[in-house]
Amino acid sequence: MRVAMIGTGYVGLVSGACFADFGHVVTCVDKDQGKIESLEQNIIPIFEPGLDDLVATNARDGRLKFAIDGAEAIRTADAVFIAVGTPSRRGDGHADLSYVYAAAEEIADLIEGFTVIVTKSTVPVGTGDEIERIIRERRPDADFAVVSNPEFLREGAAIDDFKRPDRVVVGTDSERARLVMAELYRPLNLNETPMLYTGRRTSELIKYAANAFLAMKITFINEMADLCETVGADVQQVARGIGLDNRIGSKFLHAGPGYGGSCFPKDTLALVRTATDAGSPVRLIETTVAVNEARKKAMADRVVKALGGTVVGKTVGVLGLTFKPNTDDMRDAPSLDIIPALQAAGAIIKAFDPEGMDEAAKLLSNVEYCKGPYDAVTGADVVCILTEWDQFRALDLDRIKLLMTAPIMVDLRNVYKDAYMRARGFVYTSIGRPDEA
Ligand code: UDX
């Protein structure tokens, strides 16, 4: 099959490279000339484990190409994927669909023969209808079908999520489009991946419902963590105790500083707006959004408390800045709330993150960015773990103790355990776990 992928952001690039690896001929199209030139030299603009090799191999074998002008690729494509950004619109939280509709107009002018136009971008219910209308208006003669095919890729594990998904959702009522989509994903038959065919609106909603549910699950366990702290229970055991019930499931029950990233904050907000506009409010998700925002802001208080009530003139050594490990993505990372709050309270910030510091430097000012974890804790009055990068799991704690002015750790990801840290002479606080006797 011939595929044109419009947009070489996270989703477009991973999906394009994976479809090429399935054996299809893929052209990734982007208006950003610098980005395309870099990709042609195998320079990947994002950090995603395995993606550089996948791009290099498939480009070398001629299955993966890059282009600024997508005309040729779109004209000859069996399927054109729209994988452009849908950021939150300033002011009202709705998804900004201007890039999606601009792509639809471009596609309309170019397609030849039966073409399946697929939204990979996360788009609100009804967007497929509007894309269809735009194309039909510009090209009454065109032979096409618009399909919704949402992605469920986690950053840091995106290639595995693409190649071994729990399910693939395809929203269309066109039989011909369905056959094209089945052919595109045929290699997944080997893993017996369920293919779920639905109506287009249903498919569009599935994506939002999945993200909202996961965000709600995290927020639920975060509130349980607060309750655990108050009543003297252990949130990790609560999570295990409920997660072993198959109806609940054990994933996404890890308490922390609140969810961040490129999807959950944006998609929960967009779902709330869509539902409100439709006159069918989603109150659980409204509350999830509000509770998570408040949580991220409140996390700084834990550091203040650990230092006895004030951080004025104190140095905080921050380990981890990205919203989760194995990414350089800083979008809506809890660090973006916690660090400014600490600075406003008078703290001096030193920080280290294995991949996120370039991006962080654009968003956070007055931070001393350090070469490694030990640098970041040198002279610190407290060390705060904000992201659970693997390299923070085996820190040389004796060395850290010597480098700090006092051995105090605030662990917002529950990387360590209280008894273990106390045995090593640390004053330790974490999330939702009482002090062990
Ligand atoms: C998410 C979805 O998982 C994916 O299916 C969707 O397509 C895009 O959004 P991603 O944003 O890459 O993926 O990260 P994810 O691993 O889901 O984590 C999101 C946030 O939730 C992170 O800030 C993470 O730290 C937090 N989280 C996750 C928790 O606090 N606890 C958990 O148990 C799981």
TrEMBL record:
<dbReference type="InterPro" id="IPR028357">
    <property type="entry name" value="UDPglc_DH_bac"/>
</dbReference>
<keyword id="KW-0520">NAD</keyword>
<dbReference type="InterPro" id="IPR036291">
    <property type="entry name" value="NAD(P)-bd_dom_sf"/>
</dbReference>
<dbReference type="Pfam" id="PF00984">
    <property type="entry name" value="UDPG_MGDP_dh"/>
</dbReference>
<dbReference type="InterPro" id="IPR017476">
    <property type="entry name" value="UDP-Glc/GDP-Man"/>
</dbReference>
<protein>
    <recommendedName>
        <fullName>UDP-glucose 6-dehydrogenase</fullName>
        <ecNumber>1.1.1.22</ecNumber>
    </recommendedName>
</protein>
<dbReference type="InterPro" id="IPR008927">
    <property type="entry name" value="6-PGluconate_DH-like_C_sf"/>
</dbReference>
<dbReference type="Pfam" id="PF03720">
    <property type="entry name" value="UDPG_MGDP_dh_C"/>
</dbReference>
<dbReference type="InterPro" id="IPR014027">
    <property type="entry name" value="UDP-Glc/GDP-Man_DH_C"/>
</dbReference>
<dbReference type="InterPro" id="IPR001732">
    <property type="entry name" value="UDP-Glc/GDP-Man_DH_N"/>
</dbReference>
<feature type="domain" description="UDP-glucose/GDP-mannose dehydrogenase C-terminal">
    <location>
        <begin position="317"/>
        <end position="418"/>
    </location>
</feature>
<dbReference type="InterPro" id="IPR036220">
    <property type="entry name" value="UDP-Glc/GDP-Man_DH_C_sf"/>
</dbReference>
<comment type="pathway">
    <text>Nucleotide-sugar biosynthesis; UDP-alpha-D-glucuronate biosynthesis; UDP-alpha-D-glucuronate from UDP-alpha-D-glucose: step 1/1.</text>
</comment>
<keyword id="KW-0560">Oxidoreductase</keyword>
<comment type="similarity">
    <text>Belongs to the UDP-glucose/GDP-mannose dehydrogenase family.</text>
</comment>
<dbReference type="Pfam" id="PF03721">
    <property type="entry name" value="UDPG_MGDP_dh_N"/>
</dbReference>
<dbReference type="InterPro" id="IPR014026">
    <property type="entry name" value="UDP-Glc/GDP-Man_DH_dimer"/>
</dbReference>
